């Protein structure tokens, strides 16, 4: 055997060992050792986790896209997802606060304080979600119509939105508990919980939508039931690992009692984190409504189809960027500021490479991807145009999401909040309205505004990252 063959075998064995370690499901200390290896160990399960999250949206879209009245079904699912982004925003915001605090305490070698912070975050989530769920169940039809759905589409989608809003606690807990595990350095458990949820969803979706044996066909409502059951199983998996006492975070019953000082600290970090994603979500809701009013049912359905595919491509990149959050949090806790900076730069480089590949795939394969999810020619035309235009901002978005996660991981949640106000409310919304309405470009104007805003957000984030305020935040 030649020297090159021996070398190749050793490299392959090393790669395989790294992947195996990343997927094992153990908490790790990322304040020492190779930064590149640390990024890879965190990124592999986080990317797979986000791929699983994006599959949720595509599974529903695939099966409802082939129902009778598919334009109504796709529109109902898409608009409901747009509304659910508010819940995603709250969940991600609280999750980021939990990740930052858990990671900081782990970096300080205080796992008991880390566990308590995580449980207090769950307590906050339960209170907030209860209020949102009740409102969504009562006013489901009105919400769809407010979003721009026609009366027929709103009526058709009412059972779907009510089930999804009523069961949104599973969304909240999936995001939050995964954030707790990521902060502790155990990204594999977060990934596996979404595997459980998605496998269940993939199995249940066709059965409950189309019927199977004695099980009747529930149509669009079946998609909501399947997604809810899948997420419920994922949360059950999370809770089992969180509460079994076998990991670094050992939960005691007393941690669930309200600790008002801890809740205050979490809220101070979470409030701007929630706000930054609510700002983004409100912008996306406005854009969805603008497309629905200027492009009609087919324009709205095409845009929602494109967004689902967009999220399928972007969520893995978000998973990679999540590595920056954990690395920054743990290294700041260990007083290793320069290591935190280097971790962000390396993560951003990897994300740029990934997003370059995704940009090429989106530009070249848009028609093929869209054809897989709908047979309607009008929907296809809109969706293909949307994907090709929005993909022009992918590379900038890849850098921006890493920097946003770095700020949040440091507990500096106000910086990305101000950046989002600038990018979404002061730029994206006015520009989209101007192009779509004033210049009469319709949905195309909305599609153009999206990469322009994302690029501006990234440039602003680079400037603020280099200023270094995030290095000095105490939590």
UniProtKB/TrEMBL annotation:
Subcellular location(s) per record: Cell membrane
CDD domains to which the protein is assigned, alphabetical: MATE_like_14 (cd13139)
Membrane topology: Multi-pass membrane protein
Entry's Gene Ontology cellular component terms: plasma membrane
Keyword terms of this UniProt record: Antiport, Cell membrane, Ion transport, Membrane, Transmembrane, Transmembrane helix, Transport
InterPro entries in the record: MATE_fam, MATE_MdtK, MdtK-like
Annotated protein name in UniProt: Multidrug-efflux transporter
Species this protein is from: Adhaeribacter soli
